[in-house]
From TrEMBL:
The organism of origin for this protein: Candidatus Doriopsillibacter californiensis
Taxonomic placement: Bacteria, Pseudomonadati, Pseudomonadota, Gammaproteobacteria, Candidatus Tethybacterales
Domain of life of the native organism: Bacteria
PANTHER family: DNA-3-METHYLADENINE GLYCOSYLASE 1, DNA-3-METHYLADENINE GLYCOSYLASE I
InterPro entries, per database record: Adenine_glyco (IPR005019), DNA-3mA_glycosylase (IPR052891), DNA_glycosylase (IPR011257)
UniProt-recorded name of the protein: DNA-3-methyladenine glycosylase I
């Protein structure tokens, strides 16, 4: 089913233009909002990995399918996925059927649980990389927004060291944007100031 974008003149970030209603809803209500729930962190981490080489719109359109297929992104359940379960996921037309990405998601669930065991929560672990509060950027337009940062490089390197897959610098920077570790809304966007006060 096609989702029509909102018919308004609200100023938004350049990247959201031309998207469907799911895209606008994600931008207006989720992107850049600080996340402190481990299950939500895990969802974003897996979805960002699935997006690699594809558009975020593609992932958003399949998000509900992923929630059903990946036990609503409960890492403790995903970590127990068997080879038989993985094989069934690779036959699921509602998913991005990439063998490496699906295997990585299960691997990452196990690594995610190791971090929780060490730090009590993934949230406590990940927010250390930005000093415990969102980085507030003030970009004027879409072309100003970087694809990576010093912090995303450091987090990516640490995740790789801990055994995570599909966690390159760019994927991790997108994750940091999504979970509000960095506020990359353009200053003209109506969400810039709204997200800034959430810090």
């Amino acid at each position: 089913m096609k989702h029509a974008p909102p018919n308004d003149n609200v100023p938004r970030c350049g990247w959201v233009k031309g998207g469907n209603a799911l895209y606008y809803d994600y931008h207006d209500n989720e992107w850049g909002v600080p996340v402190h729930d481990d299950q939500r962190h895990f969802e974003f981490l897996i979805l960002e990995g699935m997006q690699a080489g594809l558009s975020w719109a593609t992932v958003l359109n399949k998000r509900e399918n992923y929630r059903r297929a990946f036990a609503n992104f409960i890492p403790q359940q995903v970590a127990l996925f068997s080879d038989k379960k993985i094989a069934s996921l690779l036959q699921n037309a509602g998913l991005i059927r990439n063998r490496l990405k699906i295997h990585a998601a299960v691997n990452n669930a196990r690594c995610f649980l190791n971090i929780i065991e060490e730090f009590d929560s993934f949230d406590a672990y990940v927010w250390r990389f930005v000093g415990g509060k969102p980085i507030q950027n003030h970009w004027q337009c879409l072309t100003d927004v970087p694809a990576i940062s010093r912090e995303s490089k450091a987090l990516s390197a640490d995740l790789k060291k801990r055994g995570f897959k599909f966690v390159g610098d760019t994927i991790i920077y997108a994750h940091m944007q999504g979970v509000g570790m960095v506020n990359d809304h353009e200053v003209r966007c109506f969400r810039h100031q709204q997200c800034a006060v959430m810090a």
